[in-house]
Amino acid sequence: MQSGKKRLLVVTHTAGFRHADSIELGEKILAEIGARSGVFEVDYCRDAGAVQKMLTPEFLNAGKYDGVVFLNTTGDIGIPNLGAFLEWLEGARRLSASTPLPTPTITALNTLRCCRVSSPITASRPK
């Protein structure tokens, strides 16, 4: 993060129906918003192999990302260590979900002070 910009990890891996057109458009829009605003840059986590690598405690705790966006993911995408992922989020990271999250993930997120999931498709930080 040498540029001083925030860095977001955009997760688009699906374990069910893939909203391919929406995912492709969403990736482009997020990248464009980041570029135009100069506030953030994005990296992508697009397949099961990337999930197994990029959503691990070792990778996330390397300090590369300020937040994660789940963009039209479906099903249980196989976060390797959900507890460690939630701990990482609790460390003042940001979460955005434009997709229904699996019920165990929603339940776990609601136990944290870092975010509140009010329905299967919205997640936000409490004020």
3D architecture notes:
This protein is α/β, with parallel strands linked by helices and 127 residues long. The chain has a single domain (6-124), classed as Rossmann fold (3-Layer(aba) Sandwich). Helices cover 36% and strands 21% of the residues. It has helices spanning 20-37, 48-54, 57-60, 82-90, 103-110, and strands at 6-11, 40-45, 67-70, 94-97, 116-119, 122-124. The strands form two sheets. A four-stranded parallel β-sheet has the order 2-1-3-4. Residues 110-127 have low confidence and may be disordered.
Per the CATH scheme, the topology name is Rossmann fold
Q: Tell me the total number of β-strands.
A: 6
Whole-number total of structural domains: 1
Q: How would you spell out the order of helices and strands?
A: EHEHHEHEHEE
Low-confidence stretches: 110-127
Identify the strand order in the major beta sheet. Answer: 2-1-3-4
Mean pLDDT, all residues: 76
**β content, as a range?**
15-25%
Describe the main β-sheet briefly: 4 strands, parallel
Q: What is the subunit arrangement here? A: single chain
By DSSP (H or I, 4+ residues per run), the number of helices equals 5
